[in-house]
Design brief:
Length: 298
């Protein structure tokens, strides 16, 4: 079997990105006839028409759609491998990054992260935006450079993932709450007045699922959309909030936190980024800083 012409990868990447033979030819500085010949070779090599006529334009075949992200990543990896390695001068580098973070991340890890970045790279700017869903389109289109959260099925298969830390759910109530001075059992915990978390339209969470195994159900008297709201409400009432421990550390200052009286549900908080930034030296450095900042205390 003859070895395929790897130069066709670049042609295929541009062609799938443009979806137009003439524009792809212009971008590659080829004549229309040369581009048409290249497309014919690609069709022969892949055994698929790749782009088919639809009205006055061309539309990608299912095989082309399947190849688009993979080919783009391969081309970027090759370009990164052939590019001279240059160590960035962090002290003078001016650059901005946008991080989409799950609730509580900025409050707990933001100060240390900003301090570390300012010390090594004072002209790098970090912007934080809230994570309202698990859709990975913002990473794909470059609106967001990095993202934190729990890996879900809706995350694109091409997205790179790095586990940051494990977190567990705990209970939290106001100081001097009656639970501060009594033994907490699964039954007494469930019977208390609880704040429910309704995130992404799901009325029940991991705490409810764990209690259900024990044949118990929480007495949820109100629901909120986020951890910080739950903690604030518990601080000003006799309600009980169940929240991730590390994600709400600073938010719970001055309150009474306790280990749940049953096996605590755990989650893995991860860092996500798009493959096109995987080899970028400054992006790689920032990922390392975030990983260090989030490292669990020993």
């Amino acid at each position: 079997m003859s070895r395929p012409d790897f130069n066709l990868l670049l042609t295929l990447d541009v062609l799938l990105d443009e979806g137009n033979v003439a524009r792809a030819a212009e971008r590659l500085r080829l004549s229309p006839s040369a581009m048409s010949r290249a497309l014919a070779r690609l069709r022969e090599t892949t055994g698929d028409p790749l782009l088919v006529r639809a009205g006055r334009g061309l539309v990608p075949t299912p095989r082309a759609l399947e190849l688009r992200e993979k080919v783009s990543e391969l081309v970027q990896d090759v370009e990164a491998a052939l590019r001279p390695a240059e160590k960035p001068d962090l002290a003078t580098l001016e650059r901005s990054f946008t991080l989409r973070t799950s609730e509580g991340f900025v409050e707990n890890f933001g100060p240390s992260l900003l301090a570390r970045v300012a010390e090594a790279a004072p002209s790098i700017r970090l912007g934080f935006v809230p994570k309202l869903d698990r859709d990975s389109s913002a990473l794909r289109d470059g609106t967001v450079d990095l993202e934190t959260g729990v890996l879900g099925s809706s995350m694109g298969p091409e997205i790179r993932v790095q586990a940051l830390f494990r977190d567990r759910f705990i209970g939290v109530v106001r100081a001097a709450h009656p639970l501060c001075h009594t033994e907490i059992t699964p039954s007494s915990f469930a019977a208390g007045r609880h704040i429910g978390l309704s995130r992404r339209g799901m009325p029940h969470g991991p705490v409810d699922e764990t209690l259900a195994v024990l044949g118990l159900q929480r007495n949820v008297v109100t629901t909120v959309g986020g951890f910080s709201t739950a903690v604030a409400l518990a601080r000003a009432s006799d309600l009980i909030a169940s929240v991730p421990e590390r994600h709400t550390g600073n938010l719970r200052d001055g309150m009474y936190s306790f280990v749940l009286p049953f096996p605590a549900p755990e989650i893995t908080v991860s860092l996500f980024w798009h493959p096109r930034l995987h080899g970028d030296p400054v992006h790689r450095w920032l990922r390392g800083v975030i990983l260090d900042v989030c490292e669990p205390p020993r």
